[in-house]
Design a protein that fits this description.
This protein has three domains: 172 residues, MoaB/Mog-like domain (Molybdenum Cofactor Biosythetic Enzyme, Chain A); 77 residues, 2-Layer Sandwich (Alpha-Beta Plaits); 153 residues, Maf protein. It has 14 helices and 17 strands. Strand 10 and strand 11 form a beta hairpin. It is of the alpha/beta class and 419 residues long. Helix content is 40%, strand content 25%.
């Protein structure tokens, strides 16, 4: 079976709010074995909502609408659905009582406008909303169409879809198929290189693979379809093993497992500690490391030594070295890492210095030139990288590369290189 998602709200078309609802709904429907072929976003305009709804009903068995169920005059979804389906709105006393009780619990009077949310299309099933005032609605239309309305507020919509909508769709349509995806994450390579490494795996139909470009990473999404969780696991495990064999050490994690999570786990397993010294990344590296719960067990400190004076005062980088080689150099990066490791008393220290841009570059040292150094018990190593002309991208890529350098050192792998 197939479904279409209709998201309602002028704020979505103006770019004031990112439409995360459609992504969530699409993922949940896919997991239930429901194919989503189209997604439409429309503003708070009755004529355009009606046109989009009629078009969706003409090509999908299930139409799931988010948004436009509030108490204000521009919340039009329920009115339009009632008109299109020929189901007149009726005041539902039970729904009204629930809304009134919600306001009473908060100790504030209910505005008259909230009564609109108790208007229910004739014959619709009400989906209770314990997290808000807008109930969801489910309408079954002959011969095999279903229209579902859920609130646009993500905190209200998400549990309603998971706990109420999907079980009803499974039962109504006898759904047994399931779709699951896994994401394998790579670092330090281009999308085209990953494409080449995967080779003939592109020809496989179940599971399928797809590439997703992210900042500093290329993700390989593996998607399988089966009737049982056991069969899904078997298909995904087999394809994941093939992908891992092809990609080797450029693959670092799976699903939500970021590079900072992997590095933290490796440090914990080995009982090692880490400190960082940052120039061009301005604290981004330390921020990512400390975003991991429990990072205090292995992360000792970080220093943002942005100026030359800070590099000397806080890390002991000699003035004459900076004067001779420049703040953006392999020698200064190495001195930063050594200085931090000595002062922090940690097993490892990583340092980053570079020209983030958009200004400050020269023919010899262009914007994007970055040096990452790692100090450890056996010495210090510094590596040169050339990134982009965009300041934010350079900071992100520098932090990513620093984390990958630590990961590779902990695993006994060669240092990262741009491929």
């Amino acid at each position: 079976m197939n479904a279409e998602i209709l998201t309602v709200g002028t704020e979505l078309l103006l770019g004031q709010i990112v439409d995360t609802n459609a992504a969530f709904v699409a993922e949940r429907l896919a997991e239930a074995g429901i194919d989503v072929y189209c997604k439409t976003t429309v503003g708070d305009n009755a004529a355009r909502i009606e046109a989009a709804l009629r078009q969706a009903l003409g090509r999908a068995q299930v139409v799931l609408c988010t948004g436009g169920l509030g108490p204000t005059e521009d919340d039009l979804t329920r009115d339009v659905v009632a008109a299109v389906t020929g189901r007149p709105l009726r005041l539902d006393p039970a729904v009204l009582a629930q809304i009134q009780a919600r306001f009473a619990r908060r100790g504030i009077p209910m505005p008259k406008s909230n009564e609109r949310q108790a208007q229910v299309p004739e014959g619709a099933e009400v989906l209770e909303n314990p997290r808000g005032t807008a109930p969801g609605l489910l309408l079954r239309l002959p011969p095999d169409r279903t229209v579902i309305l859920v609130p646009g507020v993500p905190a209200e919509m998400r549990p309603m879809v998971t706990e109420m909508v999907l079980p009803r769709l499974r039962e109504a349509y006898g759904l047994r198929g399931r779709i699951r995806s896994r994401v394998l994450r790579t670092v330090g390579v281009s999308e085209s290189r990953v494409n080449e490494l995967l080779g003939d795996l592109w020809e496989e139909r179940n599971p399928t693979i797809a590439l997703l470009a992210r900042s500093g990473e290329i993700h390989v999404r593996i998607t399988a379809k089966a009737e049982t969780e056991e069969e899904l696991a078997r298909l995904l495990d087999a394809r994941e093993a093939q992908v891992r064999e092809r990609l080797g050490d450029i693959l670092f994690g799976r699903d939500e497992e970021g590079l900072e999570v992997v590095v933290g786990r490796l440090l914990t397993e080995r009982g090692l500690t880490l400190a960082v010294a940052e120039s061009c990344t301005g604290g981004l590296l330390a921020h990512r490391i400390t975003n991991v719960p429990g990072s205090s067990a292995y992360f000792e400190r970080g220093a943002v030594t942005y100026s030359n004076r800070a590099k000397t005062a806080l890390l002991g980088v000699p003035d004459e070295l900076i004067a001779a080689k420049g703040a953006v150099s392999a020698e200064v990066a190495a001195a930063m890492a050594e200085g931090m490791r000595e002062r922090a008393g940690t097993d490892l220290a990583v340092a980053v210095t570079g020209i983030a841009g958009p200004g400050g570059g020269t023919a010899e040292k262009p914007v994007g030139l970055t040096y990452v150094a790692l100090a450890h018990a056996s010495g210090v190593e510094a590596h040169e990288f050339r990134f982009f002309t965009d300041r934010d991208l350079n900071k992100q890529r520098a932090a990513q590369t620093a984390l990958d350098l630590v990961r590779r050192h902990l695993l006994g792998l060669p240092p990262p290189s741009l491929r």
